Amino acid sequence: MPLPRRRVTAELSPAPRVAVALAVLALVTAWAPAARAQLHWDASARVGVAKRHLSDRSGGDASFGPAAELMAHIALLPLLRAGLYVDHDTSPQGTDAPARRFFGGGARVRIFSPWPRGKARVWLFLRGGALLAYAPSYTTTLEIQDTPQSAPVRRQVEVGSASGRALDLGGGLGASYTLWGPWQLSTELGARAPLALAGDLYDGRSLSGGGVLSPAGVDRFVTTLTVGITYDP
Asked: Taking the complete model, does pTM exceed 0.90, yes or no?
């Protein structure tokens, strides 16, 4: 009679299993610090001034106003970083109207110069995003002509609040100097151009009693200078 066949299974002995587990653990342990070391990032907070240059203005040009910005980047290459930003500035115009307020946000990239290295760094930056604008209501005195035949009469009216929106594209130059550890003193000189402007801030603001007030001006070009602190671990 034929003998019954026995099923033979191949199993790793405990020693090889332990060796494989230790090898995997060693690889993971060695890779994790290297991955953390390669992930470079930075964050900045800066304040300064902004100057908006207007065209088609019915009054004077806008004057300098305060500006503030927050941003953060991660390194894509040794000399290239990409990230996000939010910013805010106000734009006085020297009239009865309160200063216009602007809020922006979007993406930006920083391209570092290979020189100098060490404590001092310089870079070129490009940015693009969305811009929202708001102008509060106010009371002023205007010459109102009720009919084409009537003479203009000075009358106190309320100018309604207005909002606007635009694409915001720009760039500029930046520099930093390491103060201690990861903390740096940083500054940026920037310029940007609002595009595709829309909203009643640029189309005309409503008046009490009817009518529309022509825009005080159209934003064509913005220059900024900001100084602040960068954390770059």
From this structure: no
